[in-house]
Please model this.
Amino acid sequence: ALLRGQMDTTDMNLPSPTPKSSDPARLAADIVDRLTYRIGKDATVATPDDWLTAAVLVVRDRVVERWMESTRETYRREGKRVYYLSMEFLIGRLMRDAVTNLELVGEMQEALGELGVELDLIRELEPDAALGNGGLGRLAACFMESMASVDIPAYGYGIRYQNGMFRQELSDGWQVELPETWLEHGNPWEFERRESRYEIGFGGHIERDDADNCTWKPAERFWAEAFDTPIVGWKAKRVNTLRLWRAEPIDPLELEAFNRGDHMGALQDSMKAEALSRVLYPADATPAGQALRLRQEFFFSSASLQDILRRHMAQFGRITSLPEKAAIQLNDTHPAVSVAELMRLLIDVHNLDFDTAWDITKRTIAYTNHTLLPEALESWPVPLFEQLLPRHMQLIYKINARVLREARATGTFDDAQVAGMSLIDEHGERRVRMGNLAFVGAHSINGVSGLHTELMKETVFKDLHKLYPLRINNKTNGITPRRWLMQCNPGLYNLSREVTGDSIMSDLDAMKALDTVAEDAAFQERFAAIKRANKDRLAGVIEKRIGLKVDPSAMFDIQIKRIHEYKRQLMNIVETVALYDQIRSHPERAWAPRVKLFAGKAASSYHNAKLIIKLANDVARVVNADPATRDVLKVAFLPNYNVSLAEVMVPAADLSEQISTAGMEASGTGNMKFALNGALTIGTLDGANVEMREHIGAENIIIFGLTAAEVAEKRANGYSPEEVIAASPELSQALKAIESGVFSPEDRNRYADLVAGLRMSDWFMVAADFDSYAAAQRDVDGIWAEQPRWQAMAIRNAARMGYFSSDRTIRQYGREIWNVIN
Ligand code: GL7
Model:
């Protein structure tokens, strides 16, 4: 009886778990039950957090049955599983997601209502799981939800950071970073799997066995322990697993040291383990660089691969069938060390020869590239790599020798090209190039928008693409319509369904039916009323957070995303200053009233990004205090942008700012969220904006500025921002005001260097695009003045975003990369 868990129980007559009812009375009773027996509290003393936990546990019970059924079914079918390896999962809150996908919203509201608790109130208490920086991490979260929704058996693998993305506060307009503590009240969604743990090694030396096979003796060893969160698909069709690893010491306490009186030294291992899964690196598209980051990358890659191979061997018993049963997707280069780790496991643990292992590795692994920014392409100093992962370094040299041999054998590459394809960068300090490692170890390398994929072929991977021409392919990003329409904008979702029918959540293309009512005055009125309600709600949030009153009938013009020079928040602010000047010079004109909203975090070490936040706040302070512009212009920077704030801001936007320097934003996904919620886009021909224009129609989107080719041309042939600035009176005046301290009277030089950067080099083409951008903004004003036209355009935007559902993206991965759907 003690061994029951490991025994074959098929012929035992075990009682089955009681199926969980979704009757509101039953739900209410269960909530009280959890409160009493799990939390140990009486209803009369329960805090709102206790009610939330009890409600989550009740919802989780309803998920578990479907979860086990999904797992059993995959096992029975002997199907292929998808493994999505990502350093980041930017999930946000899970309560509303799970309840809507289980279709229990009404029932839970009623059940909690019976207990005198409001669902809408307690779900606001749930902390955001902010285990990611921005688009890349949020994409991983949308993909997890879509894989469950389109019924693909999948596991997400990542790190259970104790502190996720930092909390941003503003102090006198400056960003202040504070640790985020999402686990403070525990996490009722997760299941700790103490039995699922793997040893992770670092450092040490290699004992040679024979030509291929080696034994690595690491100097440091830790446990990776699994925590599982169920991810519910639409209508709970399937429930998949997000498995996050936490590092644990193997020796929690070195008693010998402790007894010697070295109390800190005795805890050394614990502290080192803790550091591994302690905190998310807050660098967005900029490399972290430190040894701890490489340790984190290896830690979660190794744990995930050991788990994948363990599951494969337990079911199929033969390592060589791995590529038929497992598809491993690397989300950017962060898990690229997986290529070497899989090789090590196949050779040193499963005793395969190098050639067989290499063939299996390439057929199993695929890699998604998310950025072309040269500074974001990860590389590690060879000495650091060698010291932490000596066996992997050895394997990388061996892989490299083979790749370079293949390159030379074609006879088409010169020495410089071969050097560019090498896994080792030999310029200056020798470094391991993680992008090249991921490329050569994968059968598929995909970009995230059509433009980005083409640029990948022409730039970073030009020669590797020539050598392996069948590998690069495109998978344009998408967003889940459950979170980004149904949950965040129930008004628009319900209105749409009157026209489209009920299928839109499983088939976003059905939104197309809204086209037929785009010009209908009565429909426009209802559509506008929903937008207005969303804006009223956001106005409330703005007032509560920063004490600023804004007029909800004004145009809400929103730019929310990480602060980065290539995203050009600076251009938006400079244009705001120019507009402010214009309004003051021509108060008699009929200005379209605007509220310019900004939010986003800056990487802690990114000086200019932090200065841009301060500038937005300085400009806001001056503009908002000026009685001359009071009725037509307001500026606000909302602190601590996160998924939950996005869920309030996106549905309230009239205008979406997607104004990156063309060629630099790989895709963007915020752009898609806004358009689906009926905002017009002002944007450049960058990333997925290009495809959005094709789907929405050029007449329904406001495009301006240089193309990617024109940007490249200007950079190559040199361009003089001073000339451009001199030729633009508006820009000249705005820059002069900023650099002379009009917005920073207490520190007149604050923005001198920032503006000097624009005058001297202007790498991001702010000056070059300024006039075109300002003119496009005046076009926007013109459309706003013709409300029926604006509403028709906004409706057509929402109608035509079907292609950008992450269900479509995931089906393409499933068919064209993973081979799990036909
Ligand atoms: C990003 C891109 O910058 C962004 O354009 C893209 O939408 C996202 C998802 O593919 O990936 N790449 C990157 O390094 N980060 C991104 O958000 C941080």
Remarks:
- Residues 481-577+587-704+777-804 form a domain with the Rossmann fold fold (CATH 3.40.50.2000).
